[in-house]
Amino acid sequence: MRQKALIVVAVLFAALSAAVALFAATSDVVVDGSTATTLVSLSTSTVRTSTSTTADPPPATSSATTTTPTTTTTTVATSTTSTTLALPPGTEQVTLASVTDGDTVKVNMADGTVEKVRLIGINSTESGECFAEEANASLRSLLDRQQFAMTSDVSDRDRYDRLLRYLWLGNGVFVNEAQVVGGFALARDYPPDSQYSSRLADAQRQAEADQAGMWAPDACGPETGSDLRITNVQYDAPGNDNENLNGEWVDIANFGVSAQTMSGWILKDESSSNRYRFPSGFTLDGDAPVRVYTGCGADTATDLFWCSDGAVWNNKGDTAFLLDSNGNIVDALSY
Questions:
Q1: What's the CA gap between 148 and 127, in Å, rounded?
Q2: 2-32 vs 36-50: helix crossing angle, rounded to 10
Q3: Omega before residue 192 within 30° of 0, cis
Q4: Is residue 187 part of a domain?
Q5: Residues ≥6 apart with Cβ < 8 Å to 280
Q6: Which residues contact 165 (CB under 8 A, 6 or more apart)?
């Protein structure tokens, strides 16, 4: 009987020793993080850490979590949009006072004054024209209820005493570019303030390709579906442009087979004032051209006359727009 008891005790002792050894091995694995069991255990905490991008990063000395912050940081960095850049130095922190239009705002300066600011490198639709309200609303939604930054280029102010600035949100969004990408403004190079002119031009090409905002064929009403195109802008008249107005002209062609009635259609430049309205009842035949002269003359089926008081097309660069009777952009040609 005593012998059987000793045998039972020996068996129990052996089992206990095995359990202790297993526990010690498991503890070593947890510390080293080298087995599949430990990785499964750590993966739960790792997932919880990586899904919270606002949590404080763990200490760098933790070997089990060193990889996790790197993954999270990479995710944030690669999720930026095409309108995001690193904030340049020399910023002025301001808040929005009001929006004038899609490229002009009033801001509250740090010293308590209010300044009018013209966004550099872009030009939005003028107030009262198609898509002007949308451009205003877009700019307001970007800037409202938050502090944002301004940076300058070469010039500090324009001839209207407005500050000339690029605007930046706290998350790095380049506001000037965001207006262009969304189709709420045109890219416009105004030398010598050309630091981001190439980037803004690329943004406009993207907006046109995407038919974003004003570039949608039905942005201002039902689309016409015409095949009219601006084929040439003769912007630099021989001699003094203002003394040779008919030395400026724009060529438009109908590449379709059907005639297009152009009553209410408009030819314009980038300014807020130069607008030519096609004569009531004017029709451009299929596969036919028409030339619109800046000066005065007698209209015909192939020649029309703006009869402007001065030169229209800017020799340093401009854009000719052809709008249908609803205000949709049928075609545009920049030079």
A1: 25
A2: 40
A3: yes
A4: yes
A5: 263, 264
A6: 92, 117, 118, 119, 120, 150, 151, 152
Same structural domain for residues 108 and 205?
yes
- DSSP labels for 213-248? GGGSTTTTSS-----EEEEEEE---SS-GGG-GGG-
Rounded (10°) angle between helices 67-78 and 36-50: 40
At residue 311, φ and ψ (nearest 5 deg) are: -60, 145
Read out DSSP for 234-287? Answer: E---SS-GGG-GGG-EEEEEE-SSS-EE-TT-EEE-SSSS-EEEPPTT-EEPTT
pLDDT digits (tens, 9 = 90+) for 258-299: 999 999 999 999 887 899 999 999 999 999 999 999 999 999
Q: What is the dihedral of CA 241, 243, 244, 250, to 10 degrees?
A: 50
pTM of the model: 0.69
Lowest mean pLDDT among 30-44, 120-134, 261-275, 309-323: 30-44
From residue 310, give the alpha-carbon distance in Å to each of 79, 217, 290, 294, 306. Answer: 50, 31, 21, 8, 10
| Alpha helices per DSSP H over 151-196 | 175-181
What's the mean pLDDT when you consider all of the chain? Answer: 80
What are the CA-CA distances from residue 203 to residues 8, 50, 143, 169, 206 (Å)?
84, 33, 20, 18, 5
Number of structural domains found in the chain: 3
Residues of the domain holding 249: 228-334
As a whole number of angstroms, the distance between CA 304 and CA 294 comes to: 9
In sequence order, the 6+-apart residues with CB closer than 8 A to the CB of 169 are: 142, 143, 146, 148, 149, 175
Question: What pLDDT shows up at residue 89?
Answer: 67
- The answer to whether residue 87 is domain-embedded is no
Residues 196 and 294 placed together within one structural domain of the fold: no
Q: Which of 90, 89, 95, 127 is nearest to 108 (CA)?
A: 95
